[in-house]
Design brief:
Shape: globular
Number of strands: 21
CATH topology of the largest domain: Transcription Regulator spoIIAA
Largest sheet: 6 strands, parallel
Helix content: 25-40%
Number of domains: 4
CATH architecture of the largest domain: 2-Layer Sandwich
Radius of gyration: 22 Å
CATH class of the largest domain: Alpha Beta
Oligomer: single chain
Distance between the termini: 52 Å
């Protein structure tokens, strides 16, 4: 007997890669006859894809479960993602949770929903992360013009603050040929911009089960640039030690890869970078940034920074602040350090008081705001092609310039998934400013 249609709602925490995986899970359930509804509505099933980069993400998971049960107290609640892999028993103890799927089982959700009866204790399926093998390609597919395509997963690094290797396993990836086929399919479905994503994207080509494999991210970028025209590509985030000069040069000459980089820094103090067990120091990071700006003066460059790491003295923080002030980066993603179980950093002495951590966070966020405004002012009056997305937000339609300045204009459905030339305005009116043509507005990143 055919299973009757049931409704399912999704909520995603964390990175763009998580969004691509949620989208893929949703497609598999749709193929099984499940009907997607908004998370704010009553649903038979709620799927929550979690992150566990910070302690706050763990607490947020509990809050979202409670929100789902307010819409439907009898709903089936499924938790997957990094938190589910790291702490499956703890997740299963959250009131209302029925099914916990770790890293090796999250893409088998249809199987468990179709075969299992949720009338007893929560069901937990989480493998030993060392046993996790294989790569599952995923991509986002929603109302956005941009598509996030996962080409790499996992991480074989051992940064002292990070739980990602425990949550996602060793580095592994797709192949160049498979990625090119997936890109062709996404283009046929109407994608105009594709963002390559991964946990450690620059490690693309590594396969722990096939040591003879010899592909690289540099080769992937080159193959994409040669194969595809009239479509935009972006790189979501790449470690500075894996961002080779050849990759920078390829992007500088490319008409398809946008002049936009996100390069994690984490600290401007070499002492702290050493304690973090990062695989570079500030001189290498500066070299990468300066080479980008030399070849692509209009490029946008984002950086991740962690404040309040154990042992970060006032002098160390001032070193980071001064370093970033002088460095030609465009914006910062600032994270307040939080202790994570089973990491080396959690056992370190010289703990920084939380009040000091938050104060340092505020200082760097102010610096980021200043840098963003200066970046927009620098491009005032320059005309760029803007790819507009489909969302109607407060009567506006918006999109990004190649160098990641977000522009908006009065909503016009004919502009959805279309490229419109707009001039960038100055930032004298705060976060929203008038642009010179097409009645666009500049919105700070």
């Amino acid at each position: 007997m055919k299973r009757p249609l049931r409704t399912v709602a999704y909520h995603t925490l964390g990175c763009k890669l998580n969004f691509s995986e949620t989208s893929t899970i949703a497609r598999t359930l749709s193929d099984e006859g499940y009907v997607k509804v908004d998370f704010a509505n009553a649903s038979d099933i709620y799927v929550i894809n979690t992150c566990s980069v910070t302690e706050n993400a763990d607490r947020e998971c509990r809050a979202i479960v409670n929100r789902a049960l307010k819409h439907n107290p009898d709903a089936t609640v499924v938790i997957t993602g990094c938190f589910a892999q790291l702490k499956p028993v703890q997740v299963a103890e959250i009131p209302g949770v029925d099914l916990v799927l770790g890293a090796g089982e999250k893409f088998n959700l249809p199987k468990y929903l179709n075969e299992l009866d949720f009338t007893g204790d929560p069901i937990v399926k989480a493998c030993d992360i060392d046993e996790l093998e294989g790569f599952v390609p995923t991509w986002s597919e929603n109302d956005r013009t941009r598509v996030f395509l996962k080409v790499q997963d996992g991480c074989s690094y051992n940064c002292s603050f990070c739980t990602i290797p425990l949550a996602r396993g060793r580095s592994r990836s797709s192949t160049i040929n498979k990625v090119l086929v997936q890109i062709s399919e996404l283009i046929s479905r109407g994608a105009k911009e594709i963002v390559l994503t991964g946990i450690n994207l620059g490690d693309f080509g590594i396969d722990p089960n096939d040591l003879a494999r010899s592909e690289s991210f540099e080769e992937l970028v080159g193959a994409i640039d040669s194969e595809f025209k009239d479509i935009r590509f972006r790189i979501s985030s790449i470690e500075p030690n894996l961002l080779t000069n050849k990759i920078i040069e390829l992007i500088a000459k490319s008409d398809t890869f946008m002049p936009h980089f996100h390069i994690p820094l984490q600290s401007g103090s070499d002492k702290i970078l050493g304690k973090m067990r990062r695989r570079y120091r500030t001189d290498l990071y500066s070299d990468r940034i300066n080479r980008i700006i030399k070849l692509m003066p209009d490029a946008a460059i984002g950086a991740d920074v962690i404040v309040g790491f154990p042992g970060e003295t006032d002098s160390d923080f001032e070193e980071t602040l001064n370093y970033l002030t002088k460095l030609p980066v465009t914006y910062l993603h600032v994270f307040t350090y939080s202790e994570r179980e089973n990491t080396l950093a959690a056992e370190m002495d010289d703990i920084i008081p939380m009040g000091v951590r938050k104060q340092r966070n505020r200082q760097l966020r102010k610096l980021s705001e200043m840098k963003q405004e200066l970046f927009i002012q620098k491009h005032y009056g320059i005309e760029y092609p803007v790819l507009f997305e489909s969302e109607n937000k407060n009567g506006l339609i918006s999109g990004y310039t190649p160098n990641y300045i977000r522009l908006s204009m009065p909503f016009d459905s004919s502009k959805v998934n279309d490229v419109v030339n707009c001039k960038v305005g100055n930032s004298s009116q705060g976060n929203v400013v008038q642009v010179l043509s097409n009645e666009c507005e500049t919105v700070i990143i």
